[in-house]
Structures are given as C-alpha cells and as structure tokens.
Amino acid sequence: QGMDGRALPIYVNAIGTTVAQRNYINDTCYQATFIVKNIISLLGEVGLLIFYQMSDYNFSYAENHLLLNGRNGLFSQFQIHKPGYIAFSMMSRLTELVLAKGQDYIVTKGKHDTYYILLCNHVPVSDRYCLRIWDNAPISEAYTVYAQADDLNVLLTLNHVKDGDYRILSYHLNRENGSLFDEWEKTGFWENPGTEELKYLRQAIHPRRNCSKRSSFNGQLNFHIGV
What does pTM read for this prediction? Predict the structure, then answer.
C-alpha cells in the first residue's frame, strides 16, 4: 500500500527468449495461440493487457530480402498480417458481457441475441526444446519445437436463448488458413519476394469462414466444435 493507504497498482512484464532475440517460432501460429491463451487465462484477473510490438518493419534493412525474420511483431516488414494480428482482429469482436470462460474458450453476448465464442487450441513448446530454448531452430524446423499436437473438441451449450433459427458464422485460424509462415513454406522460403508475390500474400492471408444455420430448442443452443 502507498503512504495514503490506497493499494498500489502492480505491473507485470513478461518477456520470453523469443522476444529477446530473433526466433522463427514468432512467425508461426504459435504467436496467435500464445496471445489468445494468455488473454483467456488473464481475463478478469488483471486490469489491462498490452502487446508491445506491432510491426517487424523497424528492424535492420539487411533482413529485408526475407519475407519473415523471426521478430515478434503482429505483421511482417512487408506489412502482411501474421497469425497474431489476425487473432487480435478476431478477438476485437468480443464484447464486455462475458457469459462464460473456460480453459480454452470465452463466450460473450452482444446486442439483438448475438453471441460470440472464442476458442483456442494452444500447443506449447516441448520440454526438450525448453532445455535449449536459446538455440534458434532453422526456418524449416520452426514447427518441430512444439509438443505433440492433438485436436481439441469442445462441447458448449448456450442456455436461456430465444428459440428460433440462428445464423452461425465461424472463422478458423490455423496452419492451413491465415498463416503467412506456412504460405511462405510452400515456396521453399523464397528470398527477395517480388511485388506480385507480396500482392498475392496480402490477399491470401485470412482465416477460413464457414456459414451455417442452427435452431435452438427449449432455450438451448448446442455446439460441438473441433479446433
């Protein structure tokens, strides 16, 4: 407490080894799941969350021949969105009215019987990699540092909803949809990307969207979602 008896604020800064130096796992989907996982865990526990690095653009010009450089920004030095940026864009649709929160999900309610569900399947780095985390993995081995990944199946039921038909819009961010690193990998990690290649990537990097309809019954709306 301060001199006047009021509680003082506590600030916690978390900096990982991937932030302290260049590491290509910053460019993979791990960045997005790390951000979402921590926001889910800390929601309601802290007053404010901040992510410090927006862009990789302010780093050395000598790195500009590479599409990605292992920095921790939310978009690349060529102003193309990385998975972390897309994750923040998706989370921006959540509202302040939180209905439920679990280990891997948040449910919020909007106006006019609109609901928002955020799901995350966070795969941490492996114990083996943690023992040598200061050793940067080569570009081609960026995904080898993670623990064994399994699909996450979540069963959710929204209660006390109005009976009727609901339109379901779902957005999926993963290695196949919205990952700049994985699109780069398909080219064999080409250097010196040209104007047309950069134009294509800016248009291609987005989450997959599905649209369907579902009816509620007796005030319940059920979901079985795989992530």
Answer: 0.86
